[in-house]
Structure formats: structure tokens, C-alpha cells
Amino acid sequence: MTTSWQGRATIASSITDAAALALYWLAGFVLISGISTQNYPLPKNAWFCLCVTLCILGCVIMIAADVQKFSTLRVKRGLITDGMFKRVRHPNYLGEMMVYGSFTLLAWHWIPVLVLAYYWGLMFSTNMAMKEASMSRYPDWREYKERSWWLVPYVF
Fold first, then answer.
1. pLDDT attached to residue 11
2. What is the pLDDT of residues 87-104, one digit of tens each?
3. What is the residue extent of each domain of the chain?
């Protein structure tokens, strides 16, 4: 469990965090402001169903992984290799990517795509690589890494 979020907040850190959240909210802003034409590749009802399903499934994956990690690490410290983590090494990130990806698909505009490319390509991938480096200290890491996937089983 990370303690990096338990430090004191400064004005600068608050502004930085608010700016980061504002970038996430761009998809919603683009959607409700009328900037996007929303010429979806599927009929609107099917597209909305896809986006809502992706969002709900992402929330379930993210919350289930958080609950499993919290509960397991309270009882026993170490590498979690079962449950949500059995096939995917970063289910929390996968769930979050599904949630914000659904917002971007709903907005159907290039601005939210750029924001996600930044977060996924720079922030998330860096954090996942650092997490993997940290997990590599456990004796059963190599075997776990060979039988699990970074994010999506059988794809990535």
C-alpha cells in the first residue's frame, strides 16, 4: 500500500492535481459543450450501450481489484497472484482505462484521445513499470510474470 498520498497538500500540489483532473474531465466537457459532432461508427443506441457497458465493467474490475488488494495485504504482505491478479498484473489500471476510455468513446473527439494517450502512454505505463520493478523482488515473481499478462489476457 502506498503512503505517497498521505503527505500534506500544498497550494502547488493542489493546483497540479486540479489541472490533472480537469484533463480527465475534458471528455465530458467536449460531449456536453457541443464541440463534438458524435458521428459514431455504430447506431447511437448501440454505441451508448457499448460505452455504458465498458464503464460499468471497468468500475467493477477496478473496485474488485482494490478490495482484493486491500483485504489480502492486511492479512499477508507479498505478491498477489490469484483472483483479479491471476491473469492480469494491473487490473486496477485496466479498470480505470476502461472507465475513461468509455468517456472518450462517448465524446468521440480527438481532444480526449490526446489526453488518454498522454495518461496511458506516459503516466500509467510508467507507474506500471515501476510497480513491476517493485514486485520483481518477490521469489515467485518470474513464474507469475510468465503466466500473467500486463493488462489484457492473450492480447497485452
1. 87
2. 999 999 999 999 999 999
3. 38-147
The span from the CA of 96 to the CA of 147, in Å, is 23
The grid cell for 55 is 464503464
- Counting Cβ atoms within 10 Å, is residue 104 exposed (0-12), middle (13-18) or buried (19+)? buried
Amino acid at 65: A
Instruction: Locate 114 and state its grid cell.
Output: 490526446
Whole-number Å distance between alpha carbons of 85 and 65: 8
Q: What is the pLDDT of residues 60-78, one digit of tens each?
A: 999 999 999 999 999 998 9
Distance CA 47, CA 17 (A): 31
Phi, psi of 149 (to 5 degrees): -115, 155
pTM of the model: 0.84
- For 17-39, what is the HEC assignment? HHHHHHHHCHHHHHHHHCCCCCC
CB count, 10 Å around CB of 106?
Answer: 23
**Which of left, alpha, beta for 83 (phi over 0: left; psi -120 to 50: alpha)?**
left
Sort 151 into a burial class: Cβ within 10 Å, 0-12 / 13-18 / 19+: middle
List the beta bridge partners of residue 149: 88
Gap between the Cα atoms of 14 and 97, Å rounded: 23
